[in-house]
Description:
This protein has 88 residues and is mainly β. It has 1 helix and 7 strands.
Amino acid sequence: APPTPTPIIVVTPTAAPLAGAVATTANVRAGAGVEFAVVGVLEQGTPVALEGRRGQWYLIRSADGVSGWMSSLVLEVAPETAAAVPEA
């Protein structure tokens, strides 16, 4: 009898989200600038996914769903990570 074929499982890797952390408790804003409304506050040490960049501002998302813009001055982002964040 011919051997039974072994199924092949293809795993497609997904890119890990670009990540940073909140360096000091700070506001999350509706847009990239202090003139935009505050939509949340994240505590120091909170990890965030970096979804985009505009100038010195990052579009972030926290694990608990807070999404908006934070200044690079209040985030800890490795230089190689910062270089990989797409313009938004």
